[in-house]
Amino acid sequence: MRWYYKVPLRLRSLFRKDKAELDLGEELQFHLQSQIDENVACGMDPREARRAALRSLGGVEQVKEECREARRMNLIENFVRDLRLGLRMLRRNPGFTALTILCLTLAIGANAAVFSWVEGILLRPYPLVANQERLVALAGTVRGERDQTSWPDLLDVQRSCTLCETLFVSNITGATVSIGDHAQIIRGSLVSANYFDAIGVHPILGRGFEAGEDIGRNAHPVVVISYHLWQTRFNRDPEIIGKTQRFDNVVHTIVGVAPEGFYGTFVGREMEYWVPLSMVESFYGGSRLLDDRGARWCEAYVRFKPGVTRNQVQQEISVIATRLETEYPATNRGRGIKVWPLWNTPFNHASHLLPTLGIMVVVAMFVLLIVCANVGNLLLVRSFARRHEMTVRLAIGASRRHLLRQLVTEGLLLSACGAVGGMLVTYWCRHALVLFFPGDVLYLPGQIDGRVLGLSAVVCLAVTLAVGLVPAFQTRHLALAETLKSEASAVMGARGRAWLRSSLVVLQVTLSFLLLVGATLLIQSLSKIRATNPGFLTRVLDTSIPLVAAGYDAPRAKIFQDELIQRIRALPGVEAAAYARVVPLSYGSFSSTPIAVDGYEPSVAGESTDELYNEVSPEYFATMRIPLISGREFTRADDENAPRVAIVNQTMVARYWRGQNPIGQRLQVKGIWVQVVGVVKDSKYYSLEETPRPFFYVPLRQYFVIEPDIHIRTTQPLQSVQSGLLREVRALDPNLALYEMITLQEQVNRSTSEQLVAVTLVALFGGLALLLASIGLYGVMSYAVSQSTRELGLRMALGAGTSNVLRLVLSRGLLLTTTGITIGIALALLLTRLLGDLLYHVSPRDPLAFAVALAVMTVASTAACFLPAWRATRTDPIRALREE
Amino acid sequence: MAKPTDLVQGTLDLLILRTLVLQPMHGWGIAQRIRQVSKEVLQVNQGALYPALHRLEQQGWIRAKWGESDNNRRAKFYTLTPDGAKYLRQEQAQWKRLSSAIGLVLDLS
Questions:
Q1: A284 to each of A74, A232, A295, A678, A737, how far by Cα in Å?
Q2: Average pLDDT for residues A58-82, to the nearest whole number?
Q3: pLDDT (tens digit per residue) in A155-202
């Protein structure tokens, strides 16, 4: 049959009923007329001729109805019939149906949720932003390591890049905003003036920024606020444009309101306002941030022209960076500019989430495969039960194609129910990723859009084919006569027909074993990370005060800091308190400098002597409980007027002084010689997983920063310290607010949250997979036992004891498990490497993980086999034999 | 004239298809042709003819087109499709086997 002919025909009879009806009437009318003509020609009178003609046709209406009936025999109506039949079958086995749909819901839901996260966080992370597939992030490099870029460099790139359509800057910042009597720190972006045009987002009220608004120091105090801010803090004021609002201590004019659903361009955070980057110094402090090529603070994006690849853009930008190196050697030597795909953007949460999401995609796929195998198996077992039905239908004339269509329809029905359930799961779970991250509320939306729906539909179709065709495949072997006769009883352990079901079970066991190994490895790794001693006391509290934004200059800040620390130390329950520029294990960056030490020559020419350091106040080490090994802590005497000093860690002593006592020795920091006055124990600086690295400390007063973090060691609960601190801060300056206060333990937890997410999800899915595989094994064994009642009865009649039967059945089940586990071990040895960076101090082939997975799998599968085996021993030999 | 024989179930389709091998025809023409060719022995039940035509059309073995009849009336003409021709060949072979088998059995007694 030619589809191009058939399809329009069938559609016509379905949708163009009137036309078809008219045709039918006319056709019969022609017939009647011809008959009447003939009758008249034979000599009848016209009225008689008409009556005779109608009689011979047998009733026009009946014929019409029969013709309609004939037309209705088409694909769509067959489908409806199959559907109805399928629904009836499913309703008749509610247990089977519920189990199958539950499995499919979990699998499709898990996959769609993971897709939606990948889509919403990695592929198209910025809602409403146009052409994200051509957007890339720009970051600087210095001798291969990542750094920020400077505004003058970016302007040069913008001017010279022929492959770039547009370049824009979007830096995260924060500001204290008081509306009414409620002051709050909210997050926003410093952006280049072309920002809103570049991303194709148009404010719903007012305007975006105009060309030139990113030029001139603090020259354009204008702001675009988010829809959310407009709605919640300004009560959707329609007259908002032109009104002013203080952001920190600078009054900004509100020029626009961003559309609903636009959250800016930062993975993991919602932006509440946007200001042009001419205002950067009022937010970041510092001077000459706009025109100093050496001031690197920008986070930029580039959209390349259609048809251009990322590599081509990288090549062109590298050429520009090389040119800048030769033109401005003082600031640009050794520096490059690198292009990053959005899903690996180095300056937001994307790159942290990438490995976790990658693993989740794989794990969700595994679960899907297991579910397919499981549902396929369930359908298969049922198709055996329905063999009589199928055979009877074949015998009374159904074609094999009919049966196949029926089975596929049933599969489609099941997977459609599963898909609907899965989409609901996804809808509820798309924002759930946030739940795994402790404390800090990240903004990690899942996007349910065409691509996610499309992928889910593909998954659903694949599942349908997989689960629907397995039983259909079996109908090939239906031999009418044989099956209609009483079915010959199966023999325990007979291979032949059962191979398909067996291999599905083996597949499930293999995949769940893989997941178990992965989960165990990740759990081991996480517990090792969590057990790592950070080298400082984790019950210390940390917060900071936005002094830069409040307009404090260095002298005012010094007075403020001194007064505040006295007041904090006087708070009840406070044991010690200190300032430090950077909190360890946070997202903040430590200062870094090339250093020189008397008598130390780099062993290899060109070896980097860049080291990290932190600016800390007196009592820092006492507050953090970082043990002082020799020498002294910083004191109040180490101020700007005193000789410059530093305290180094053990690794630094080992590397630069070869273990000799460095106290009294000189160290060059940013070109100035300072004296080493103390040695402290190593601690962790950027992450718990890092290896010990050289690190040193300098007094805050000698390397002053206006806005350091405050560390407080206390026995009091966080809330009471927080309110006490806020009181003291307000007493000094009523306009100030506090940034979030957290314990350093919380900071540690946040720094390991990616691992936690990976572990939780893999463990969750691993458990699920284990359960599904056990159900599969149980199903297959139960069926095998029920099919071989006769054999078992015979064996028992001949004297086989309970233990023999038990052994017989169990050994069959365990054979499947063993095969699955063996393949699983082989695959795991190959695949666990992929966990790579997420594993800390755990080998991907850690024998303990394999042993644990083996033990769990063995216990679970033995349990799954035991019940059917036990039931087998209850076989009544007499009844079993008589039944035949 | 003996009473026209009713058609054996399922053979109507075969007759229609065979008739259409020669040329496109309308329903009335098909009925006339079958009667003539079978020397008035086979009388097509007109009530069964049209449902059969529509069924064959749905199956894609014949296709319909409006045209002018000999006496300039609008009539629906049916044409055999390549699929229909193929089906007819199969069924013809089947029919020959069956009828010769029946013939053998009948001659035996």
A1: 72, 26, 12, 32, 17
A2: 72
A3: 999 999 999 999 999 988 877 777 665 667 788 899 999 999 999 999
The minimum CA-CA distance between B84 and chain A, rounded to whole Å, is 8
Q: Is B76 helix (H, G, I), strand (E, B) or coil?
A: strand
Domain assignment of residue B1, yes or no: no
B75 contacts chain A (CB < 8 A): yes
Distance from C-alpha of A607 to C-alpha of A614, rounded to nearest angstrom: 22
Q: What does the block give as tokens for A416?
A: 């459609």
**In-domain check, residue B69:** yes
Cα A256 versus chain centre, distance? 33
Neighbouring C-alpha atoms within 13 Å toward the C-beta of A769: 32
DSSP per-residue letters across A834-878 = GGGGG-SS--TT-HHHHHHHHHHHHHHHHHHHHHHHHHHHT--HH
Q: What is the pTM of this model?
A: 0.68
Answer whether residue B5 is part of any domain.
no
Interface check for B27 against chain A (CB to CB < 8 A): the answer is yes
Q: What pLDDT digit, counting tens, does each position of A667-692 carry?
A: 988 888 999 999 999 999 988 888 88
Instruction: List, as one string, the DSSP characters of A616-677.
Output: E-TTHHHHHTPPEEEE----TT-STTSPPEEEEEHHHHHHHSTTS--TT-EEEETTEEEEEE
Domain interval for residue B100: 11-108
Q: Does A66 touch chain B (CB under 8 A)?
A: yes
A740 touches chain B (CB under 8 A): no
CB contact under 8 A, A30 and B76: yes
Domain residue ranges of chain A, discontinuous segments joined by +: 3-73, 144-333, 352-488+499-530+753-882, 551-734
Question: Contacts of residue A31 in chain B, CB cutoff 8 Å?
Answer: 26-28, 46, 50
DSSP labels, A308-336: --HHHHHHHHHHHHHHHHHH-HHHHTTEE
Q: Which residues are CB-neighbours of A765 under 8 A, at least 6 positions away?
A: A110, A363, A364, A366, A367, A515, A519
Determine whether the interchain pair B28/A6 forms a contact, defined as Cβ–Cβ distance below 8 Å.
no
Interface touch B58/A56, C-beta < 8 Å: no
Q: Distance (Å, rounded) from C-alpha A367 to C-alpha A422?
A: 13
Give pLDDT, residue A364.
Answer: 84
Q: Do A71 and B45 touch (CB under 8 A)?
A: no
Distance from CA of B106 to the nearest CA of A (A): 27
Question: Which residues have a Cβ under 8 Å from the Cβ of A657 and sit 6 or more positions away?
Answer: A597, A600, A665
Residue B77 domain-assigned (yes or no): yes
Best mutation target, B13, B26, B28, to test chain A (most A CBs within 10 A)? B28
Domain count across chain B = 1
* Domain at B46, CATH number: 1.10.10.10
Q: In the numeric block, which tokens belong to residue A812?
A: 């069959």
Q: Which of B46, B50, B63 sits opposite A67 (nearest CB)?
A: B50
- Helix H or strand E segment including A428: helix A400-429
- Asked if B51 and A67 come within 8 Å (Cβ–Cβ), the reply is yes
